Amino acid sequence: MATQLPSLTTTNQPASPFKQVLNQVRYELLLTARRGENLAITFIVPIVLLVFFTSLNFIPNPAGTTTVERLLPGILAMAIIAAGMVNLGIATAYERYYGVLKRLGSSPLSRSGLISAKIITILLIEVVQFLVLVGVAALYGWRPVGSPFLTLLALVLGTITFSALGLAMAGGLRAEATLAGANILYLIFLFIGGVIAPLDLLPAPLKAFSHILPSTALIQTLQTTMSRNSSFPGSDLGSNLLVLGIWAILALVIAIRTFKWE
């Protein structure tokens, strides 16, 4: 009797969208590790700023708060903006310029899948960065206070918002325009978003404008959720979370709808 051999025919079914995103996350982490100088700057600059301004202690603190307690939320926000909007946006823009994204566009990975993978990668980096900054702050007497859940929510919404803004520029503008635009927006968020100096030090028109910025909403949310009291100016947690959530949704929708592979 003839023995029936097993079929050698295989079906090359594409991976599920979830697995495609996970594979792309691994690829993005590998690329990030290869850009060692950018990764070092991403981690070192916020640490240096936190240590420098905490040591100087020249800006008055709200009642009942310490210098490190006032600075840590702003430095965390600055790190999120730099990693998501600036570093990710510029790196993706040049991937598009050099044709890397064009090759990815011929794969089963969708635009939303690529954007999701890049944002997840930044989230993973931010987890490590958060732990490092909190560890440094602990050396200056900072202790865990406030609401860990709301702090995590703010960090996630902030990462989505600024990563999506960077990807929207990278997917719709030339690499040079993304480079300039990301850095200009970064400076705007840095100087009038309350990262270092309190918003009360700003002129009234700039102070009013700053309240619609995602950077201000992120910083004030972190100040409220990581503080022992609500004495920070603009500490309306519900309004700030709403502003940050709206920015996260708008930025993500714009990034997905306008992103081009080439």
Automatic annotation (TrEMBL):
Chain segments annotated as transmembrane: 39-59, 71-94, 115-142, 148-170, 177-197, 237-256
Pfam families: ABC2_membrane
Gene Ontology terms for molecular function: ABC-type transporter activity
Annotated InterPro entries: ABC2_TM (IPR013525), ABC2_TM_bact-type (IPR047817), ABC_2_transport (IPR000412), Nod_factor_ABC_transporter (IPR051784)
Domain ABC transmembrane type-2: from-to ranges: 37-262
Alphabetical UniProt keywords: Cell membrane, Membrane, Transmembrane, Transmembrane helix, Transport
Topology term for the membrane: Multi-pass membrane protein
Source taxon at top rank: Bacteria
Entries under PROSITE patterns matching the protein: ABC_TM2 (PS51012)
One Gene Ontology CC term in the entry: ATP-binding cassette (ABC) transporter complex
Compartments where located: Cell membrane; Membrane
Protein family per UniProt: Belongs to the ABC-2 integral membrane protein family.
Protein name from the UniProt record: Transport permease protein
Species lineage: Bacteria, Bacillati, Chloroflexota, Ktedonobacteria, Ktedonobacterales
